[in-house]
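Ops channel
N.P.: pipeline sanity check, posting one input/output pair.
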């Protein structure tokens, strides 16, 4: 089987019926841009009433480019992301959340930039945010703690923003172990340590009209613990 040019890991947790339309948007975008792709749909679950795994399996049955991952959860977002990344085969690997808060057009934007060969990792930063002050506060706290405790002057504005895209060679240099919300920071820390060439581009972050964010204020303390632990370990 031919190796696809781009693997897109979509984090689908609790996306429910929305994931069907979102995947169709991604497919249309990549097809319009003539990008050879595979989609790794991560629909790991913790309760049997979550319909997302069944919907992802239906999408995979209709499109051979889709790989479904539907396991009982053993961690949080980081565990989901790692379970998806290890199933990718493409020359470039992108990760995006499946809640529709990021435009799917960002995928082709970051792909074309990294395809140019000047960068090893390309990501977005949320220049415009419509998700409300609690989520903005949490995000700013994340980034402030990161800069304060780890890398003052770190040349990245928005650690957690997606999509992120890496070359296959860059991904092989990373050793991701986090199972929780720290994985985005772990990627950026290791990218910096490996001297990967990093580029950020602006995006719009939309409000999630369907459900509340899974990221709570207590996640700041979880992030702080992980950041200090990671710093001491290094």
């Amino acid at each position: 089987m031919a190796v696809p040019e781009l693997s897109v890991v979509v984090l689908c947790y609790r996306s429910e019926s929305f994931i069907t339309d979102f995947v169709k948007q991604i497919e249309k975008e990549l097809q319009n841009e003539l990008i050879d792709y595979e989609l790794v749909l991560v629909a790991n679950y913790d309760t049997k009433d979550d319909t997302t795994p069944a919907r992802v399996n239906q999408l995979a049955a209709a499109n051979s480019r889709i790989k479904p991952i539907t396991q009982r959860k053993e961690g949080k977002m980081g565990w989901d992301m790692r379970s998806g990344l290890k199933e990718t085969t493409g020359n470039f690997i992108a990760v995006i959340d499946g809640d529709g808060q990021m435009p799917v057009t960002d995928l082709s934007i970051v792909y074309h930039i990294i395809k140019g060969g000047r960068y090893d990792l390309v990501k977005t930063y949320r220049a415009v945010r419509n998700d409300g002050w609690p989520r903005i506060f949490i995000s700013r706290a994340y980034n402030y703690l990161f800069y304060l405790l780890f890398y003052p002057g770190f040349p990245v504005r928005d650690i957690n923003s997606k999509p992120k895209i890496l070359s296959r060679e860059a991904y092989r240099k990373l050793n991701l172990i986090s199972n929780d919300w720290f994985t985005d920071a772990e990627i950026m820390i290791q990218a910096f340590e490996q001297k990967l060439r990093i580029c950020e581009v602006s995006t719009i972050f939309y409000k999630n009209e369907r459900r509340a964010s899974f990221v709570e204020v207590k996640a700041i303390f979880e992030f702080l613990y992980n950041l200090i632990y990671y710093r001491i370990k290094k």
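N.P.: looks fine end to end. The first strand starts at residue 6 and ends at 11.
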